[in-house]
Design brief:
about 220 residues; alpha/beta; about 40% helix; Rossmann fold
Length: about 220
Amino acid sequence: MPYIDFVQTIHKKTKRDYLGRVNEIPKATAAAIAKRFGVDYWDGDRKTGYGGFRYDGRWVSVAEELAHHYHLKSGDKVLDIGCGKGFLLYDLMNTVPGLQVCGVDISRYAIDHAKEEVRPYLTEAHASKLPFNTDEFDLVISINTLHNLYCYELDQALFEMERVSKGQSYLVVESYRTEEEKANLLYWQLTCEMFCTPDEWRWWFDKTGYTGDYSFIYFE
């Protein structure tokens, strides 16, 4: 279960005004709107979500690194848990022609407005109850999703992630190492429910039997 990072470069490209974020709108109001995971979260105001979640190719480099590291080839099957609009799956399809992709997300809006090329492969489902067979996927990924679950859901979601994978998986979750990073995370996040240090996350991995790779997002 090694720590390996594929997304930190993308994460650090976004400049964040943490105090501005928490002062521009009541945090409880913003979070309540964001947790509907509808139009306001994906394509509404930046105060309540992404401020317009549109394809811009930023995930191409991540797709290429994932394909190289996990030796993906035509015919392999990849699942993205919390796929959103399917941008990373789209880039994986282009990186590895013939790759079979699947995605799940709890947001009906995201699936309905997903990249047209991958929309047929996306399913509305919860991470804690995946509608797939055991050992079905050559690679299972989940990026910036599982920290949105409550602990009782996370427990089952990590088990499910392990169950449907043939052995290769990779997840990314938000975390903090210092009080400053903890405060920044609290200021910036809108949908997070699991606020864990790296050691706490690793405790969850051990508890649930998750054996895949992982990395953390920090708000420095």
